[in-house]
Amino acid sequence: MFNPLVSGWFRRLLVKKESPQSSSSPHVQVRTPSPSVDGASSLVTTSTPNPPPPFLSSMIRWSQTYDLCVCHSPVDIEEAIRLATYLEKPACGLRCFLRQRDASVGGAIPTELCQAVQSSHCWALLITPNFLLDDWCQYMMHQALSEGPMSNRIIPLVLNLSYSQYPKELRFYYYKDLSKNPERGYTQVYKTVLKYLEDMDEKDAAKVDCNMHSTSNRLEEASCFPRTKLSSNYQNSEPLLSLQEIERTEAADS
């Protein structure tokens, strides 16, 4: 016998079982972003470069117009520009002198080159076969040797040059070969200039401390010296005579 109550209950049960399957789609997958991944990506994008060394803002560095004077032949201008571009990028922040770019137009060449050497902390000599044939390159090389022959300011850079062609004036200097790995050579030039600037800053700081110490010692000596001098003069001086005693002494002598 058909029971309508049982059939209604059975129908509602089927509807409850089918409703979760009909409401969800098996072909759609929803993914929520992972907070850990977003946090890691934000750390990568917001990372800041290392701050420049403190001695790059020292007074001894800014006493010269340029950090490095690049001496090169006009034929090798492209290689010189690559070197200067590497050293002048924000990560390095050095000031370079290039003759074709920074020399005054119409100025006397010897004067311009001499001023460039004298107003630079270090000198990079881009020695190539063209360098050896250029008289002005030879002029700048000898000018740099006269300014600091025994210092660490001269940086020879060799490119497409054999050791037998290396200038005899620079045989006692360690040179860097750009023929094999130019970027590595640029990095060595950068570190050499930084090392020189750091040493100069330390020497200047030590000199200032020494001057302050000597000045304080002089002030202490000056504050003590007058009292000693006055007391010694007072002890060694003869007693003063009155006017009557002087007249008696003169009368007795007469």
TrEMBL record:
Residues covered by the TIR domain:
64-197
The annotated regions of Low complexity compositional bias extend over 20-30
Any one cellular-component term (Gene Ontology): cytoplasm
Superkingdom of the organism of origin: Eukaryota
Q: Which GO terms describe its biological process?
A: positive regulation of canonical NF-kappaB signal transduction; positive regulation of chemokine (C-X-C motif) ligand 2 production; positive regulation of tumor necrosis factor production; toll-like receptor 4 signaling pathway
Q: Which GO terms describe its molecular function?
A: Toll-like receptor 2 binding; Toll-like receptor 4 binding
Locate the region Disordered.
20-50
Looking up InterPro entries in the UniProt record yields: TIR_dom, Tol-interleuk_rcpt_adapt_Tirap, Toll_tir_struct_dom_sf
One Pfam match: TIR_2
How is this protein named in the record?
TIR domain containing adaptor protein
* Organism per entry: Oncorhynchus kisutch (Coho salmon)
Q: What is the lineage of its organism?
A: Eukaryota, Metazoa, Chordata, Craniata, Vertebrata
Gene of this entry: TIRAP
